[in-house]
Each structure stands twice: as C-alpha cells, then as structure tokens.
Amino acid sequence: MPLDDGSLLEVKDLSVSFDGFQVINDLSFNVGKEEIRVIIGPNGAGKTTVLDLICGRTKATGGSIRFAGKELTRLKEYDIVRAGVGRKFQTPSVYEDLNVFENLEISYPHGRSVFESLLFRRSAAVIERIHEVAEMIFLQDQLDRKASELSHGQKQWLEIGMLLIQDPALLMLDEPVAGMTVSERRRTADLLQSITKSRSVLVIEHDMGFVEQIAHKVTVLHRGQILSEGSMESVKNDPKVVEVYLGH
Amino acid sequence: MLWGYSFSDLTSIFVMQSFAGLILFSVFLLMALGLAIVFGQMGVINMAHGEFMILGAYTTYVCSQVFSRWIPTLFGAYFFIAVILAFIVAGAVGMLLEWGLIRFLYRRPLDTLLATWGVSLMLQQLFRSVFGAREVGVQLPDWMMGSFNLNETTQIPVNGVIVVGLTFFITLGIYALLLKSRWGCQVRAVMQNRSMAGAVGINTEWIDRLTFGLGCGVAGVAGAAFTMIGSTSPTAGQQYIVDTFLVVAFGGTQSLGGTIASAFSISQARSILEFFLSGSMAQVIVLLTVIGILMLRPQGLFSMKVRR
Amino acid sequence: MSLSIQKRKDIIFFSILACFLLVVLPGGLEPFRLNLVGKYLTYAFVTIGLVVCWGDAGILSLGQGIFFGLGGYCMAMFLKLQASTVEATKNQSTPGIPDFMDWNQITALPWFWKPFHSLPFSLIAVMAVPAALAALIGFAMFRRQVGGTYFAIITQAIASVLTILIIGQQGYTGGVNGITDLRTLDGWDIRTDHAKLVLYYIGVVLLLACMLFVWFVRSSKLGRILHAMRDQENRVRFSGYNVVNFKIFAFTLSAAMAGIGGALFTLEVGFMSPTFVGIVPSIDMVIYCAVGGRNSLLGAVYGTLLVNWARTSFSESMPEIWTFAMGALFIGVVLFLPGGLSSLYQNYLDRYMTRLVAALTARFKPARV
After folding, report:
1. Which of A151, B19, C53, C92 is most enclosed, with most CB atoms within 10 A?
2. Which among C225, C242, C243 has the least Cβ separation from residue A106?
3. pLDDT, tens digit, for every residue of C322-350?
4. Candidates B110, B278, B283; nearest CB to C60
C-alpha cells in the first residue's frame, strides 16, 4: 500500500514494555522522503528504543512500522537492513582489527550470504565505490590504517561511511557528534547535509546547536510519548518542552 | 499392575528412590549454589569447581581417619567437624586461587574457563600424589548407618536425613547472607556494576575474593555430602562440573529459587528413572532433556525477562 | 601481479611445513615414531578447525571430541563390518555381525550399521555426520544468540552425554573398549608397516589440503566477516548479514575437519573408543590450539605436534610431573601468552623474516606495471 502523504517511514500506535514497564506508549509519527528528522528528549524518554524498534533489535509489543510499503515489525534484522534502513550506534562500532578499507568493504551491500562472501572478489567497481565513500568521510588517506588507530571522531565518520556505502533510503544516527571536537562537529554537519540529499535521516541528538544546524523537523519525546513536534522554532517555544527538557 | 509391581511396591519405590534422589539433590544444590555465586559474580565457569568438591570429600576422609585413630571417643561427631573443615579448606584454597589467577582474567571469561581447567588438572594430580589413584570411602559412625523404618518396605537412611538437613540450613544461610546482609548487598552491587561499586567505596577486590572463596567453600561442603553417596577419587569431580552447570543454567543463573527447583527436578528425575532403566540411560535421558530445553530456552526455566 | 610480502611468507612457511612433514620426518624417524607423529597430526585437523571457529569467529567449543569421535566411529564401523565377514565370525552364535554385538546377545545388525557396508557412504558420513550434528547444534544455539561460556559448556555437556551413551549401549557401540580389531580397508591390510607409512602420507596430504582450504576461507571476505563478527557482532548484524549462518558455517566447518581427523585416527591406530570423544580429549585439543596460537594455522599444527611430543616423552619418563606440567603450561599460556607461540613469532621474529623474504625474493619479482 503506497503511503499517501509521501512519507517513507510511518510509525503507528507503537508500544513496547519491559517487565510491565511501558517504555514506548502508542507512538505515531511519519518521516518524509529526503527529510532530516531529529528526535530530542530527556534521558530515558525512549529515544534509543525507537531506533531499536525500527531496526528490529527490539520487538514491539504492539503497533506497526511501515517503511516503503513493508511492515518492519515482522522482518528479521538483516532483512530490515536489506530493505534500506541503516543504523549507527551510540558508541562507535567499527571493526578495530580490520583496516578502514576492509571496514567499508564488509558494509558494501554485495556478498552477504555465506557462499557469496566466500566467493566475493574485489572488483574495480567495489574499489572505486570504497574510495568514493572514503573521500566523503574524510578518510581517503587512511584506507590502510587499522580502525583501532583512528581518533574517536574518525571512528564516528567511518561508521557513517559504513552506512553510506550500503546506500540506505533511511539513515538512523544515534548521537553522531557525541565526543567530537568543535571542528569535527562542523565537518560532520556538512557531511550530513551532503549525504541527505537523496535519503531520509532520523537523528537522536542532545547538542541543540547541532540540531538547529541540521533539522528539518524536530520530535520531542517524553516518557515514551510525543510531547511536541514541528520546526525547531516552534518546538523551542513550546511551553511543555521548555518545562520538561530545555528549561533546565 | 505397572511392570509387574503392585501399587504398594511402587509407592515404596517412589519414596525410597526419591529419598535417594534427595541426597543427590543435596550434592547438586550445594555444588550449584557455589557455582552460581561465582558465575553470577564474574560470568565465568570455574572448571575446577568439581575438584573443590573432591577437596572437601578428601578433607572428610582425612577427618574420619584421624578421629578413628586418635580420638575414637568423639568419632560419632566427626562428620560435623569435617563439614566445617571442608568449608574452610576449600574456601581458603579458593581464595588463594582467586588471588593468584582469577583476578587477572576478569575481562576474559572464556580464558578463565580454560585457565581453571588447567587448575583442575593440577589439583587432580595433587590428589593422586597425596591420596593415591584408588577410590577411598569414609567410615560412618554406627548411629549414622541406621535407618528409619516407615513401614515394612520403606526405609529412610539416617545419613540421608542429616545431609538433607545440612543442605537446607546452608541454603538458608546463603540466602540470608546474599539477600539480607550488608555484605550480600555489596556483593550484588559489585555484580551489577563493578566500577560504580568501586566508586562508592566498596572494596571490590576483597568482595571478589570472599565471594569466590564462599563459592568454593560451599563446594567443599558438597564434597562432605558426596562421601555419603559415592567413593572419592582424584577424578570423581570432573563429571560433576557438567551436571552442575546444567543445574545452574536450567534454573536461570540469576535466581536462587530457580537453582533449588532445577536441582530438585534433575536429581529426582534421574533417581526415579534409574530404578527402571540402567543408570547410564537415566543420566543420558535427563541430560538430553535438559540440554534440549536449554536449546529452546537458553535463559533457563525460571528466569525473568530482562532488557538486553 | 606480484604477490604481497605476507602471501610470499605464507607460501614459504607452508612449504617448510610440507617439506618437514613429507621429507624430513619420514627420513629421520623410525616407523614407530613416525606412526606416532601421524596420530598427532590427526588431532591437527581438529586444531585447524578450531582456528576458524575459536580464533576467527570467537566461538569456543569444548566439544570437538564429539566430531572427532563421530568421524572416527563412522570409519571404525565400516572397518569393523569388513572384519566381520560370515567366514571370519563363523564361531559366533550369529555369524556376520561384529563380535561385540554377539557377546551382547544381539542377533541382527542394527539398522544404523547397515549403510556402513558401503565405502563411499562411510567416507561421506565421516564428514557429513559430524557436520550435520554441528549444524543442528549451531542452528539451535546461535539463533537464540547463545555464545561465550554458555555455548562452551553446552558443547561439553553434549560430549559428556555422547560418551555415557556409547559406554552404556555396548551392544551397539562396543562400549568402553570401543570398536577394536580392525583389519582391512576394502581388502587392503592396514596393520602392516608399509600400510602405516602410506596412511601417514595420506594423512599429511589431506592435512595440507585442509589447510589450503581453510587458508582460502580465511583470506576471503567471509574470513574478515568472521573477525568483524567476533569483535562487533551487532554492527555486522545491522550491516545486513545473517550472523547466525556465518557462525553455523564456522562451527560446521570445524566439525567436518574434526571428523576427517577422527577417521584418519581410526585408520592409523586401528581402533576407536569413547576415550577420544569425551570432555578430556575435547579440552586437550583446545589446549593444543591455544599453545600453538588460536589465530595461526601453522601455529596450531606446530602446537599440536609440540604438546603431544612433550606429552609422549614426559609420560614415558615421569607421568606425575607431566599432568602438573600440562596444567601449568595451560595456565601460563592463557595468562601470559593468549596468542600462543605464534604471537611470540609475530612479536619478535616476524620483522626480520619480512626483511629476509623481501631481500630474497626481490630478484624474482617481476617489474611493476
């Protein structure tokens, strides 16, 4: 069923509870094509859980998540990725033992089954694509270095690069600029602006300056429910939001 | 009636076999409690746990020898002293092991598993050098050899009653220690968040050492109980590590009640099946059932759902 | 295209091992000793499997004896049926069945023995039975995200159950003595000195072939995925891989290798018994791998040879000290040398070797294009 309002992701009445504790409660929101959506909210609001639910890491107790015509709540994690959802974790998750090239190569969306990966060859197209992405994430000179030797900011970029090479229609980033220096933040904001031209992005972030820089639309989450939604300007002036989140 | 047994025969069989099962249950439970404490604390299996049990069994054996030779007047009471000594000896060796080896491996659970296997090899050889490779059995004082006759066909051995009673009190003691005492609170704090517990002033190293010692000490008591149902040999402990782990896993590693329930069901199933099948088939069927259930439900039968 | 220094070193070291096993040892050892080396090398099939399963994928199995034993029993069943012709067993109350069955009042060959009359079936079963069981265990465990110590102990429990089962069902399995008195392989007497020498060479060639296959696996993208999965399983899962299948593959591969080793063991030693199935041999093989280096194929083979050579020479002279030494060795390796002997080489000798190889092969290197 095509989505009528042009949205790519449609979350409807989503609920999940752990041990009877309702973490997400009847949550509904849509993310449009080529939209950058930022989720903000106090600690424990359920932000990371929302991403976990979309990418299949946590199973919902109720509700639906529709993405490009597919119902994600019924798919396996790897099928969700193959459907076009990419996820970056809060702490940089790169393969420390492998070099930057190999890190990107593993994320290249071919040779994903056991036997395909056994027979996978580095074709010119693969090498070219890896160089292209490495350049976007400012690591073109670091391809031979082990990921463990990279700085914290570089690891974050590498992980973003690993998602880019999958060419997902929806990119989900959990605190992409946490622990970065000011100049790294600026470059990351530029990076996000440039990579979102052809895709939708869902970002969790605490850094308000950064949020203002990138967000098309902001969703404020509080106790598993939406407190407010809209442009950064309108959200910032919403008295409820000021009360629970921004005011302190 | 059933397989040619009359109803009253069957009742006596069940009562007597389940009582035989209760001693096995005591050994399983004490072993499992010790292993669960260490497993819960550090997330590793101490592969030498069976050897700590045998250490307790040898302590009991030495006690029985010493009492019968030097202080025969007190022979009747030696078992109780042996239990205390078994706890102290096994506990002390356990603390020594924690200090000398385990504390270097806290971040490498799989390696701890392998290193403690090395320890178990060395302990086995130590037993062999000191006590010889042959099996030894303990002498029981006369009053423990008797049995209570419930009716003509049903008899309950006295030593079994003592072992079961002992297990009951130790379990109660551990429960009180871990869940009601201040020390237990600190142990649980370290289990859940080591660095935070250290930051609020708990001496985590000391907690680790005492906990490990407690786990090994309880295994030593299990060894004292073990002398009632089996003969002690250097390698007798090895088979028990697998059984014990299955008991712990089957019960769900985080719950004391689960450990008790699973030790009970496994030992009873085995003991009752043993009467109808050969001993090895009873063991195979019970182990396979447990493994099968664990494959379907790795969190154990009695565990809670937690957020990963 | 010129080969990288690493590939050149791999080829040189592999050739040295091949030369050592195929030329130096047969030339320098008396037949009895050579047969012992052949026996040790059958364990090396298990350890190179462990390099993939444990070293690369991070899955520690304490039950490799299961697969070694199953492979060995499959071979032994075929050989036993060959030795139990009606003519050879005419004194039994039921001629034509293995002697231990007759002793246990079994009067007909059990159904699961029947296919082992066929050599091709038996040879396939040697790999297929362990692989199928491993795939089943792996499927059940990995799908529920069971790993680490938990997986290690479950595999150990299965090894323990299998041993008890084999000992308990002696009418079908030969019990604690195992399947003994094996004579011919399709009419070829395996007990002669000449046969043992031929079997040694077959073993070495098969081992080298398995090493090449494992080498190919490890240098493919699959090898890198296994490494990635060991360190960051979630990242791999959320990069679109079904990690369960990769784990099953690594575990099954190691099981199939162990099965081949077990079959060769039966052929070289002439019997198979539950002693090689249970907990103790399973962990021993992990020790060989740990000592040699869980991340190095060559290290695993040398580790196996070294530990077994030490075991044989020590237990001949002072068996008591050996058990202590084995325990201490294991603790020492885990504590101070987690990468095994191969990490010593990596840390201290590799850089000189690199220079040496670069210098030696420089003149053969074709001009860069």
Report:
1. C53
2. C225
3. 888 888 888 999 888 888 888 888 888 88
4. B110
